[in-house]
Structure formats: structure tokens, C-alpha cells
Known about the structure:
The protein is 2% helix and 49% strand. By secondary structure, the protein is mainly beta. It has a 5-stranded antiparallel β-sheet. Strands 9, 10, 11 and 14 form a 4-stranded antiparallel β-sheet that branches. The chain has a 3-stranded antiparallel β-sheet with strand order 8-13-12, with no helix packed on it. It starts with 9 loop residues before the first strand and ends in a 6-residue tail after the last strand.
Amino acid sequence: KTMIVAPFDGQVTDINLEIGELATTTSTAIGMLALNEFQIVTDIDEADIVKLTLEDSVEITFDAFGDDYVFDGSVAKINPAEKSIEGVVYYEVTIFIREPVEHIRSGMSADITIITEEIENSILIPSRAVLTENFEKYTRVYDGDEVRQRMLDIGIRGDGGFTQVLGGVEEGEEVVITIREK
């Protein structure tokens, strides 16, 4: 003889108890799905979690719609408590989708790109060309017919395998990625 009221508009997806059954505090009586208010919950590893902040922009694609349809989202929650998955530390991050997505369904697979920083007009080199020796970063550049080592001052490392260079190489210089030994 109790009324249950949902805290949001949605659609009932599951009714797990029958009339007269005893409900406990750990059992789910009714499952609901919010209408047009979907979220994505993902795990971010400890090496990347320090780069994230609340409200970071997120680009979202769904496998069902293909890569041509990119939706906007934002980081809504970052769980401060870690969880270990196969010995690796992760943190749970919740992403809200900013606009309603027609035909979206619960449980669909999504790919996300979290934009933590944007920098324009900078020099990028392939991350494979950035080498480390004695805790210092360097690269190899063509100098005429010779390959020379050049110390680097690097910025951020981005997606797509590129690293921002703040100093050490100039625009237009050719960096060496690998050297084939004879």
C-alpha cells in the first residue's frame, strides 16, 4: 500500500517483484530507463585520469551509427575511488550526452574522445621520433646528408601518435623515426 514515484521521466524496463513479495534494501524492485538522458560510464586508467577535469568536452560516436555521426558530451562525474581490473588501476568516469540522440538504445557501444586540452599553431612530430636518454628528450634530424641528435623541449602528447614540440626543431625540418642498421 505504498506508492513508488520515479525521480525522472522514463520508461519502465523491469518489474522484479510481484505483489506480496518482500522487498529488501538491496533488491531492485523496478528498473527504469530515462528518456533522452543517456550517459556513458567508462573506466579511465590512472595514467590518463590526472588529465581529466569535470566539464571536459567529449566527442562520441556509436558503433550503430558509424563514425560519420559525432555527438557532443561532457565529463559529468569522476569517481575518486579507484578500482582494480586485472591488476591495473582505473577510475570510473560518467559522461553526459549534451543533445538527444534519436534511435539510441541502452547498452549500445560507444567510442569516446575526451578533449583535455586544445592547442593551435604548434609543431608536432611523431611520438616515435621522440627518444629519451638520461631523462632528457631528443630526436634525430637530417642535417644535410648526416643525421644529428637534437635535444627537445616537448609539450603535450596527443592522440594519433604525435607530440607537441616547444623547442629543438623548427617547422619544415625532417625528423628521423627509425634508422635501419646495415
